[in-house]
Design a protein that fits this description.
The complex is a heterodimer of chains A (391) and B (329). By secondary structure, chain A is mainly alpha-helical. Chain A has helices spanning 3-16, 19-44, 60-75, 86-95, 108-113, 129-159, 165-177, 188-191, 196-217, 219-226, 228-234, 239-269, 276-300, 304-322, 333-338, 343-355, 364-383, 385-388; strands at residues 49-55, 79-83, 100-104, 121-124. Chain A has a 4-stranded mixed β-sheet, sandwiched between helices. With 329 residues, chain B is of the alpha/beta class. Chain B contains 12 helices and 14 strands. Classes of the chains: A mainly alpha (391), B alpha/beta (329).
């Protein structure tokens, strides 16, 4: 077997016996992802609004709003809609059981067919501002549609002055039925956002990746301190073979750690990853990038303590910038732009692209950037091999 | 301080020539910044010969060994191992050397057997042959019973023995041992010394560094005395001590002003050398019996003489004579 493989096999055997490596690579990120999902998941996950409708008019025009408009919202999962009476609706909104309620007053259809203004009331909850804004927007949208109906009725009345009021109301009701129901489009920007469980699982996995891969390449510094590196250097193997063995250890540890975390979070936390091939490419390229960064640190540090400190500083800084603790979009444009230098942002972004339902091709831009980071950082480490692999 | 160059002495004591050199170092030099750690060191070792590098801490022994083993590159000079030039990329030369570093260099979370198998694999020894060789070296160092235990559970002496076993795993032509008995108990030390004696009889060349002169006297066919990066004398132990002539070695323990006592002792006509160390004064005289009363009288004038001993000259005495220092300073 090639010396690099022998070194990697030896390192992996050591790591398999090291509980701290298992804890740091798998247990801690998984537990934190689970805890964060429990704490912040409900707030971060979009839920259907609870709306009520009070139809005091009971005409075809008012039913059109209830069935066509609110029914469309319900069908798309945006809202749960119940029909109640007005006191019940007010009490529901007041008590927080409902986010908002629509009230169609008596004479709604007649007002639509007349020059009088038609009234559609929205009772909103101060505790559910978003739901209230959406409810008002829906109501406004519907009322604007009614203006078109008024124009149609007026046109019919002018053209056929002999029509009776009942006929005119029938025309109005038929026109109201033609008002388009509300349609919520799934725009790409929304679809690329990971759901809370998936986001926290991915974020913790990529954050702890930098700690996991250090068990490989950074162990060169430990071997130097313990004297075994001198023994490796005295053996009939080349320096690059020693470094390659250590890099291989990092890559294997990183891939195993991420794979276990991704599978476990899908099975136990309900995380939803996208196309398996795309996820695999992101895992491999992310691990290579993390290994490269760790290699640079190992080439600069002289002692284990120094390497550990620098490793922690770099991992936390990149994690913060890269969105491992909060979505970088929430932090403004500056942080969002800075995040582009971190492998974390590209890894999470790639997963977001896959979550949007695209195939593996959707993750390729992120994969390419991650491989670029890996190439540059590993190249720097190789240039410093004389110092990294030295007694 | 009397300093005799290695070249002078090498001419007097030529190593045996019946067998070829397993190691030939020529004019080795290495510095670290402004410090010249090794300066113009030349020596050679034959198959089956145990060669001792004797010197105090900081003399440059470990630097020489690191260059011999290909761990460090020399600034100048050459190292030939079995006729092949050694440098950090010289895989053939490295394969001929068994390197045993001064500190225990093992993986504590692996068993003794796993450590040996790992290093055997780096020397391209096949799995089956490696298993049989592992059993052999475990037997040599007396660790067969503990082979399946993790190294972290070993005593200091057992780790030292396993440290040597790793150096032997590939049957090297030259075994390089850097102070292998530092910090070990007497029982383990005896086991280590016994192992080295056995290896040299099997035809393996041994380069052995130590600052324990009794080890050098017991093990080494030839020794080189090293100080401040230079070889200052080389030869068989008895030849080196014989160079002191009929000198005898008086050791005094003095409670008082040792510096002034040494100065006064050096003025005595029967004293050929005197040196103060932390806990004693060493005096060289041609005839201890006749010189002793005067030596004690002069020393007592500077303090209280607590103890006096008279020894036969040994390598310690040679080193004292050549450098004015004791080996364990």
């Amino acid at each position: 077997m090639h010396p690099s493989l022998q070194i990697a096999a030896k390192d992996l055997r050591q790591r398999a016996r090291d509980r701290s490596a298992f804890l740091l690579a798998i247990v801690v990120p998984f537990v934190l992802a689970a805890v964060f999902s429990l704490l912040f998941g409900p707030a971060a996950t979009p839920r259907a609004f609870d709306y009520a409708v009070v139809d005091l008019d009971g005409t075809a025009a008012s039913r059109a709003f209830t069935v066509d408009v609110l029914g469309a919202l319900q069908a798309q999962g945006v809202a749960e809609v119940s029909e109640v009476d007005e006191p019940e609706a007010r009490a529901g909104v007041r008590d927080g059981d409902l986010d908002a309620a629509f009230v169609l007053p008596p004479g709604f259809a007649a007002d639509v067919a007349s020059p009088r203004p038609a009234e559609l009331r929205v009772i909103g909850s101060a505790d559910s501002p978003t739901a209230t804004v959406v409810a008002r927007s829906v109501a406004r949208s519907y009322v604007e549609g009614l203006d078109a109906a008024r124009v149609a009725v007026a046109a019919v009345r002018a053209a056929r002055p002999a029509l009776t009021p009942a006929e005119i109301e029938r025309v109005a009701q038929e026109t109201v039925h033609d008002v388009s129901p509300v349609v919520v489009e799934d725009v790409s920007a929304t679809a690329r956002v990971l759901d809370a469980k998936t986001y926290f699982a991915a974020a913790m996995a990529v954050f702890f990746l930098l700690f996991t891969v250090q068990f490989g390449v950074s162990s060169l510094i430990d071997e130097r301190g313990e004297g075994t590196l001198a023994r490796l250097l005295a053996a009939p193997i080349r320096r690059w073979e020693i470094l390659a063995g250590k890099l291989l250890t990092s890559v294997v540890l990183g891939i195993v750690s991420l794979t276990v975390l991704l599978v476990a979070s899908a099975a136990m936390l309900g995380a939803r990853w996208g196309d398996p091939l795309g996820v695999g490419l992101l895992v491999v390229s992310g691990v290579l990038a993390g290994t490269g960064i760790t290699s640079v640190i190992a080439s600069l540090a002289r002692t284990s303590e120094q390497a550990g400190t620098w490793q922690a500083v770099v991992a936390v800084t990149l994690g913060l910038l890269g969105g491992a603790f909060f979505p970088v979009r929430q932090a403004g444009a500056v942080i969002a732009n800075l995040s582009l230098v971190t492998p974390h942002a590209w890894f999470l972004g790639g997963l977001g692209d896959l979550a949007g339902g695209g195939g593996a091709a959707g993750a390729l831009p992120s994969v390419a950037v991650l491989l670029g980071i890996a190439a540059v950082t590993t190249g720097v480490a190789l240039l410093r091999i004389g110092r990294t692999v030295a007694p | 301080m009397n300093v005799e160059t290695s070249s002078t002495h090498a001419a007097e004591v030529a190593p045996p020539t019946a067998v070829g050199d397993v190691l030939r170092c020529t004019d080795l030099r290495r510095s670290f910044g402004a410090v010249q750690a090794v300066d113009a060191v030349s020596f050679r070792i034959h198959a089956g010969e145990t060669y001792g590098l004797l010197g105090p801490n900081g003399a440059g022994k470990t630097t020489v060994i690191s260059m011999v083993s290909g761990v460090l590159e020399a600034d100048s000079g050459s190292v030939l191992v079995d006729g092949v030039e050694m440098h950090p990329g010289a895989l053939t030369a490295k394969a001929a050397i068994g390197y045993v570093p001064q500190d225990v260099a093992l993986y504590p979370d692996l068993t003794g057997r796993e450590n040996l198998l790992f290093f055997a694999s780096l020397y391209r020894i096949g799995r089956r042959r490696a298993r049989s060789r592992v059993a052999e070296v475990l037997d040599i160092v007396g660790l067969t019973e503990r082979a399946s235990d993790r190294v972290e559970t070993y005593s200091g002496g057992m780790k030292r023995r396993l440290n040597i076993a790793v150096g032997l795993i590939h049957r090297p032509r030259l075994l390089v041992l850097d102070e292998p008995t530092v910090g070990v108990d007497p029982q383990s030390r005896n086991a280590i010394l016994g192992s080295v004696e056995r290896l040299s009889t099997e035809g393996m060349g041994v380069l052995y560094t130590t600052h324990y002169m009794e080890e050098a006297e017991r093990l080494c066919d030839r020794v080189a005395i090293m100080d401040l990066g230079r070889l200052i004398a080389e030869g068989r132990p008895r030849q080196l001590t014989a160079r002191l002539g009929d000198s005898e070695h008086i050791r005094l323990t003095l409670e008082g002003d040792s510096t002034r006592a040494v100065a006064a002792l050096r003025d005595l006509p029967r004293v050929t050398g005197a040196t103060a160390t932390d806990d004693a004064i060493d005096v060289l005289v041609p005839d201890a019996e006749s010189a002793l009363p005067q030596v004690i009288q002069v020393a007592a004038a500077q303090g209280t003489v607590r103890s006096v001993s008279v020894d036969e000259p040994d390598l310690e005495t040679v080193f004292l004579r050549l450098t004015g220092k004791r080996l364990r300073d």
